[in-house]
């Protein structure tokens, strides 16, 4: 970004991940510098991603509205572009009904922008509003909503630092959420807390681990079931908590008799003694906390549910230093869902089927949202050209997905109408009928919600380039064109106020308070009561007790399938969850060209370290250099998402790895 456009004095929130560090532009270095005294990065620290936050802001920007004519995108006036969006959406709605529309976005946009997006969708008569960052942690959030009444992290980074044990499952927070990790996990472990890492692959987080449990991919639920069984065997359950705060213990305990640590550990890929050791560490701790990531998301919620059982049995909910803490990914992943950019809920985790919640919204909007849940983003994309005829995409790139290229291209090409509002051209704009040039984070005003439910402000430190406009203003204009209801707002604070009236989690919050450092939801609980730590006396379901539920290992997708779980001769591919942000540096690119394979698996395939190998799935083949390493457990291989994407479909990907004929 050209430096003269940036204002040094403006404090804003880092856009690079969900930790929510506060920063400002530093003219002397041209980089970001942390804000001391901030809620998360108190000492003013930033990670390397955050320090580079202002870099690239000027690159490749869309600076003019574009409309497709005779196959080409042409520059037009804002009036014409917005008219075209309104008429495109209106036509689909008239011909095919509101549920033939899809609204996607936007975990990188503000709460106010997400609120407007879903308000447009719902006032047009559809709940087909979703954001794709939900795929990163939603199985976990769904399990938490069902059993605890909220998908939010149960605890705050502050009190998590008091844990005696951390169980990190399918995540790499040391690298992915570094400032959060350094704020609570690292100091606690340096002070003697235990860190159990449940992951088929060693990563940077494993370096600090006191014990690494590397299960077969897809066998996490079994691994957790065995931990619970060993805890029950050793009598380490928290009887008082079980009696006061849970239901169904007897049936649960009986159901656990199906599991046998000695007999089943190997099936999970683990050593029985290691399971017992980890169970003892977890069960004996006063405070044990779970941190989860994308690695346990592939199995319909079985692993997150098993982890909730583990926490409930050991009494690790509703106090400091404990709980179920999904460390979210994108800057406003939490907020997008909080604002109702999801098909099943209105703002504030309120199911669309809840008549009171619909009435609350109707009182504010003058229109009642539909009572039937909409469809998820992946489902909607699969219906492009059939059930879905028109789509509006705000700050997402759904054309990059896990469908094979030909299918994906056909689906996007089959839409009657596609509008994309983005800061830069991407794979999705290539299919768009209208492209609206948007503002980037450093150019906007509004609020975002971080991974521990802290609501903080974005402040504009620059203006958008060329004729690009702020996302907020564009959405308000579109709402006014598309609906009969009020979309006249005197800026983001006015939308924030309206949102707090329909969103029970944010009720009572004031924009001033957000500007003044930040506020946390559920706001009305009060700071000393239930804001930092959820479920203290009651769960968010409103009940004092949460159910213990038998762990259905068979339901965990791949558990019965030996090939998929890396038990048999086949291998299962592991990838990182993200493609772009890190692939840029030379070291990341070198890493990207390798496939990590366990030395034992390499030996049976005559593969030597450094050899060129073909990695083949049922979707395609990529050629990579083998790196033989114990960092991946037997039965699995690992490749960076940027090279592995052509191999990956839905769920886990079995692959075969063979010596490539082309030897170096
Ligand atoms: N530097 C950087 N940081 C980022 C991002 C970025 O692009 N760059 N992206 C952000 C985003 S959007 C997200 S969603 C988060 C992601 O945050 P994480 O989920 O922590 O990220 P990953 O590195 O993908 O870690 C997933 C881990 O799950 C493991 N895994 C895979 N399969 C299984 C399994 O079956 N069982 C278990 N137990 N583990 C398994 C993998 O080996 C890997 O170690 O990171 C955020 N932070
Ligand atoms: N195949 C495959 N699929 C994946 C992943 C993968 O690695 N491979 N990763 C998964 C994960 S973890 C995630 S979080 C999702 C992420 O999926 P997406 O959110 O679709 O991520 P990006 O591809 O980075 O696209 C983000 C787009 O938003 C635009 N943008 C950024 N800021 C703004 C803004 O303020 N306003 C507007 N209007 N636009 C903005 C960017 O220019 C970019 O085009 O994808 C998931 N799906
Ligand atoms: S940890 Fe996340 S929010 Fe904090 S500086 Fe790094 S990228 Fe930004
Ligand atoms: Mo993500």
Automatic annotation (TrEMBL):
Keyword Ubl conjugation (UniProt): no
GO molecular function: 4 iron, 4 sulfur cluster binding; metal ion binding; molybdopterin cofactor binding; NADH dehydrogenase activity
PROSITE patterns: 4FE4S_MOW_BIS_MGD
Keywords: 4Fe-4S, Iron, Iron-sulfur, Metal-binding
One GO term (biological process): respiratory electron transport chain
UniProt key word Iron: yes
GO cellular component terms attached to this protein's record: membrane
Domain named 4Fe-4S Mo/W bis-MGD-type: residues: 7-61
Any single Pfam family the record assigns to this protein: Molybdop_Fe4S4
Ranges where the record places region Disordered: 545-571
PANTHER family in the cross-refs: NADH-QUINONE OXIDOREDUCTASE SUBUNIT G, RESPIRATORY NITRATE REDUCTASE
Protein's UniProt name: Formate dehydrogenase alpha subunit
């Amino acid at each position: 970004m050209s430096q003269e456009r940036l204002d040094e004095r403006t404090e804003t929130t880092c856009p690079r991940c969900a930790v929510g560090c506060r920063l400002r532009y530093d003219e002397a270095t041209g980089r970001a510098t942390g804000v001391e005294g901030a809620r998360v990065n108190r000492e003013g620290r930033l990670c390397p991603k955050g320090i580079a936050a202002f870099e690239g802001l000027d690159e490749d920007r869309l600076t003019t509205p574009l409309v497709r004519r005779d196959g080409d995108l042409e520059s037009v006036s804002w009036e014409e572009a917005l008219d075209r969006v309104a008429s495109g959406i209106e036509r689909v709605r008239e011909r095919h009904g509101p549920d033939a529309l899809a609204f996607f976005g936007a975990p990188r946009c503000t709460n106010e922008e997400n609120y407007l997006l879903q308000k447009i969708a719902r006032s047009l008569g559809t709940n087909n509003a979703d954001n794709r960052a939900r795929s990163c942690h939603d199985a976990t959030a769904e399990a938490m909503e069902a059993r605890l009444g909220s998908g939010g992290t149960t605890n705050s980074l502050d009190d998590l630092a008091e844990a005696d044990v951390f169980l990190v499952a399918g995540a790499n927070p040391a690298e992915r959420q570094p400032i959060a990790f350094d704020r609570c996990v690292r100091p606690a472990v340096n002070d003697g807390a235990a860190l159990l890492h449940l992951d088929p692959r060693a990563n940077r987080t494993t370096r600090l681990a006191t014990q690494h449990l590397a299960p077969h991919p897809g066998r996490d639920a079994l691994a957790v079931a065995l931990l619970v069984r060993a805890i029950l065997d050793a009598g380490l359950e928290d009887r008082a908590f079980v009696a006061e705060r849970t239901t169904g213990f007897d049936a649960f305990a009986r159901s656990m008799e199906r599991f046998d640590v000695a007999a089943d550990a190997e099936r999970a890929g683990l050593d029985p003694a290691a399971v017992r050791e980890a169970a003892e560490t977890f069960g004996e701790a006063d405070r044990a906390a779970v941190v989860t990531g994308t690695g346990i998301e592939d199995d319909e919620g079985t692993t997150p549910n098993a982890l909730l059982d583990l926490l409930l049995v050991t009494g690790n909910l509703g106090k400091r230093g404990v709980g179920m803490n999904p460390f979210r990914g994108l800057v406003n992943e939490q907020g997008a869902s909080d604002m109702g950019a999801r098909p099943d809920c209105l703002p504030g985790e309120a199911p669309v089927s809840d008549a009171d919640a619909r009435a609350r919204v109707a009182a504010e909007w003058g229109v009642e949202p539909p009572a039937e849940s909409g469809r998820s983003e992946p489902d909607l994309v699969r219906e492009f050209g059939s059930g879905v005829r028109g789509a509006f995409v705000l700050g997402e790139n759904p054309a990059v997905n896990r469908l094979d290229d030909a299918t994906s291209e056909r689906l996007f090409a089959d839409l009657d109408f596609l509008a994309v509002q983005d800061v830069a051209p991407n794979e999705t704009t290539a299919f768009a009928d209208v492209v609206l040039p948007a503002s980037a984070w450093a150019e906007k005003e509004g609020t975002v919600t971080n991974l521990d439910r802290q609501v903080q402000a974005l402040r504009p430190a620059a203006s958008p380039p060329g004729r690009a406009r702020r996302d907020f203003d564009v959405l308000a204009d579109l709402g006014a064109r598309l609906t009969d209801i009020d979309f006249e707002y005197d800026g983001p604070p006015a939308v924030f106020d309206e949102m707090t009236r329909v969103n029970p989690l944010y009720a009572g919050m004031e924009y001033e308070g957000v500007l003044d450092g930040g506020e946390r939801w559920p706001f009305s609980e009060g700071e000393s009561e239930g804001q930092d730590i959820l479920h203290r006396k009651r769960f968010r379901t409103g009940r004092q007790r949460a159910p213990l539920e038998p762990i259905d290992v068979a339901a965990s997708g791949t558990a019965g399938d030996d090939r998929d779980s890396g038990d048999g001769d086949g291998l299962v591919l592991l990838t990182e969850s993200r493609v772009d942000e890190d692939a840029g540096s030379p070291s990341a690119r070198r890493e990207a060209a390798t496939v990590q394979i366990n030395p034992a698996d390499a030996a049976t395939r005559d593969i030597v370290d450094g050899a060129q190998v073909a990695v083949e799935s049922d979707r395609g083949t990529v050629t990579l250099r083998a790196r033989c390493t114990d960092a991946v457990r037997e039965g699995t291989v690992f490749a960076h998402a940027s090279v592995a994407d052509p191999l990956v479909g839905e769920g886990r990907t079995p692959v075969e790895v063979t010596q490539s004929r082309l030897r170096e």
